[in-house]
Design brief:
This protein is an alpha/beta fold and about 575 residues long. It has 3 domains: about 190 residues, Rossmann fold (3-Layer(aba) Sandwich); about 90 residues, no CATH class; about 220 residues, no CATH class. Strand 12, helix 13 and strand 13 form a beta-alpha-beta unit. Helix 12 crosses helix 14 and helix 14 runs parallel beside helix 15. It is elongated and about 125 Å long.
Length: about 575
């Protein structure tokens, strides 16, 4: 499963709490019923004002039944472990037994975001790996044969002894004998008193990981001199190597990795994540926290979790997938939109590429750099809003603010009432649909004012169903050009024609709108507009001043602002 959201939204806090509950509490804590202040600070860094206690709930399955275990921490840092929510709960032997059972059957391994190959924690981990995968095999655990590796350690000891002893024999021992004070029966000698295991430990404590930069074995750089992403990968590799899932099939191993993408090239992020997912097994599961759009995009929709924060509290959300078919559809779309949905404060769904490019530019004009907090997603046609709306609805508890932006023709029978069908297919119950569609059809024979009135009223109609929709009076192209920027638009079209046509002469405002693809609302379609191209629409949008823009643009930006 992947957890994602912004840096301060509590993903690490969730993993930290699990690590402390499943690994940090010991027998002394159980007996005293109190947390060490440092442990408490890491577990519950903020206590709500006037709060007397906070509760951690562990959900587990025991013999096919769902059970809950509660750890209630009081403001004075005392805690109780209990299985029922009652007034003034007390720790019970059965609660302690259940927690110990959970810990025995679930091995939680936290790989923190800060991964430094020079840290003591890294070296301790590396030493354990060396012991279990190298040195321990060189030293025999019982009599009966001497391994080749053991003989090699003995040879090292003898070589050190034979190299050092002559120097000391010649320089030090005569001086000691001279000052001894009496004649000894035996000649003073040097004994190198170190056993083979000590030699192994000495080697172990001084081995360091590095990279061989040429074919020559001695041309090695320390791991600490490599990039931070590579150091991070080395630590993760050691953690994965140390877990014993294959040797303990009855125990569930949970490897929780914080931000595996840290300092890695995007392609390396994908490669590492593919490798992590491939290692998933029946009793080896991974939890990954991430800010990487590449990792989120590669994660199946049903395996994602979303962490959001309000004030000092974090909430964890999972999608509500109502059928296997829906899950398949979400996974098919997920690669393209998962990260767009999650890494934004607001989401705007538009019909196509032109709408997407133009709206991004207009948002930049309005909000500056803050526009990056708003995701704009192209549905590739007004008939394709339904899957995206269903995906957003699946994250209903997270309340992702979103707006659908569509042209007027998506309301009409001629376009199969695309936005109506899309909303209905996404599960929205449209109230007063018949009366609203009667107004739509009646407007087709009226003036532009009627179109504007119906487009504006569409917002209220969809809002009644719980859906935010903006409808252009005509379409995006129509709103791009008005009397203020008509000359600039004509100049752009003339340049795009190679100056073969001067669009500033003999072309009305509506003529220019037709050239870039506007249908001038459903009653006046065009054949094959010459300049219906996203990059041209964006160039024209660049000439739009928000203060003098078409009223539809002002309405659209206001609708986004209100989300």
């Amino acid at each position: 499963m992947g957890l994602n959201w912004q840096n301060d939204h509590g993903k690490s806090s969730i993993l930290k709490a699990l690590d402390i509950v499943l690994n940090g509490l010991d027998e002394e804590d159980f007996e005293s019923g109190a947390l060490d202040p440092d442990l408490a600070d890491r577990l519950l860094p903020v206590f709500p004002v006037n709060a007397k206690a906070r509760r951690i709930t562990l959900y587990c399955e025991d013999s096919g039944k769902q059970r809950q275990l509660y750890i209630t921490v009081r403001a004075d840092l005392t805690f109780v472990i209990h299985e029922e929510i009652v007034r003034n709960p007390k720790t019970t032997p059965s609660s302690i037994a259940l927690l110990k059972q959970i810990r025995a059957e679930n091995k939680f391994i936290l790989v923190p975001a800060l991964r430094d190959a020079t840290s003591g924690e890294f070296q301790e981990l590396f030493s354990r790996i060396l012991h279990s995968h190298g040195i321990s095999k060189m030293i025999p655990k019982k009599a009966g044969g001497t391994p080749k590796g053991y003989r090699a350690l003995k040879d090292i000891r003898e070589q050190v002894t034979n190299t050092i002893k002559p120097y000391i024999d010649d320089a030090l021992l005569p001086e000691i004998t001279k000052h001894f004070g009496f004649i000894t029966q035996h000649k003073l000698a040097l004994k190198f008193d170190v056993d083979v295991k000590d030699v192994g430990d000495w080697i172990l404590n001084n081995l360091r990981l590095g990279f061989q930069v040429t074919d020559h074995r001695d041309a090695t750089i320390a791991l600490s001199e490599a990039g931070s992403g590579v150091q991070s990968g080395a630590l993760l590799a050691l953690q994965r190597l140390e877990q014993k899932a294959a040797e303990n099939p009855t125990v569930l191993y949970i490897l929780a990795v914080e931000e595996p993408e840290a300092f890695l090239h995007p392609q390396k992020q994908k490669e590492l994540y593919d490798n992590i997912r491939a290692a998933h097994a029946n009793n080896l599961h991974f939890i990954v926290t991430t800010h990487s759009p590449y990792i989120v995009g590669e994660t199946p929709f049903s395996k994602l979790g979303l962490v959001r924060k309000k004030d000092e509290f974090s909430t964890f959300h999972v999608p509500d997938i109502r059928s296997p078919r829906e899950g398949e559809m979400f996974d098919a779309y997920g690669n393209d939109v998962n990260s767009i949905l999650f890494f934004a404060d607001k989401v705007v769904l538009v019909e196509g590429e032109s709408d997407e490019r133009v709206l991004r530019l207009l948002l930049q004009k309005k909000y500056g750099a803050s526009c990056r907090h708003i995701s704009v997603v192209s549905a590739a046609g007004n008939r394709n809003f339904s899957p995206y709306l269903r995906m957003i609805r699946a994250w209903g508890t997270a309340r992702i603010p979103h707006l659908v932006v569509t042209d007027f023709d998506s309301l009409t029978a001629g376009a199969d009432r695309a936005i109506i069908r899309g909303a209905r297919d996404a599960g929205y119950a449209l109230v007063g649909e018949a009366a609203f569609l009667t107004r739509v059809d009646a407007a087709l024979d009226k003036s532009a004012v009627e179109f504007e009135n119906v487009a504006s009223s569409a917002t209220a109609f969809f809002n009644d169903a719980g859906l935010s929709v903006f409808v252009f009076t005509s379409d995006l192209e129509y709103s791009l050009i008005n009397d203020v920027n008509k000359g600039d638009a004509a100049k752009i079209l003339s340049e795009e024609s190679g100056n073969k046509v001067d669009y500033s002469v003999g072309y009305t405002l509506d003529d220019l709108r037709r050239q870039i693809g506007s249908k001038l609302a459903p009653f006046n379609p065009v054949g094959d507009p010459k300049f219906k191209k996203p990059f041209i629409h964006r160039k024209i949008a660049d000439t739009v001043a928000l203060g003098t823009a078409h009223s539809d643009i002002a309405r659209l930006l206001a609708a986004i602002d209100a989300l």
